[in-house]
Amino acid sequence: xxKSVSEIYRNSGLDFxxxxxxxxxxxxxxxxxxxxxxxxxxxxxxxxxxxxAKEMEKAGWIVSEKSENDARKRNLKLTExxxxxxxxxxxxxxxxxxxxxxxIRSSKQNILxxxxxxxxxxxxxxxxxxxxxxxxxxxxxxxEIKIFEExxxxxxxxxxxxxxxxxxxxxxxxxxxxxxxNLKAFYNDKGNWLWTATNKNDEVVGTIGLEKLNDEQxxxxxxxxxxxxxxxxxxxxxxxxxxLIEEAKKQQFKExxxxxxxxxxxxxxxxxxxxxxxxxxxLVPDNYILPKGIDLKIYRLAL
Length: 303
Prior knowledge:
A hairpin with a 5-residue loop joins strand 5 and strand 6. It is elongated, with a radius of gyration of 30 Å. Helices cover 47% and strands 19% of the residues. It has eleven helices and ten strands.
């Protein structure tokens, strides 16, 4: 938006930048001001005001002069060029204001209210303290990823079914899935791989599995993460996926296949971002066991 506004100024014959508006507007309404006073009013740093002032002075919009009351201080004020251009700028500001109001009215959320809430929060909470508190919380939430152990059978089963049926209403049972009812028999005993992610309380919060179909093809199975552990902050999905890819390359597989329900749109985006391409079901080998009774997308990743 700021870039577009600056282009509009230039198209109107004004060498004016959108970032200069707060300082220009303040001086146009209240007249000559000292740098420290400006910094306090605009809630920006003293060096920030100086940087803006240098740019605007070079462009001929303001001048910096010694204060009549204190020779150690410098005041900023608009130039004759600025005062002459002010009527044209004010006319443009009316249009900008109305255009912004249109954008806000068309949005489902109140952007200005959200920004006000953030400002109030930061006024009452020191940002640096927030950062260090968050840093400690993340250390507390350290996730361990390891090969599946039989003691986690019930936890994995409960988590997977909760996501499949609680979030996506798939109506699946453990018995309808080739691997879930007895994870040890499907993964550990057959030489396949299943990794579990556990939190500090030894609770399973994520899984990912790799099933060997033949010497060249494998299947990505059971990639599930509890809702509160998703997102870029922990990056758990990426960590699990990287472990699987590392093992697949170690085993010299040429491609990885996977199936995912049609309704799991976030999963589709994740797989597509990571290089998977959708294919038809007739391209999967005969020994690839697909879950029955649900609409699926099937993907392939070339390694």
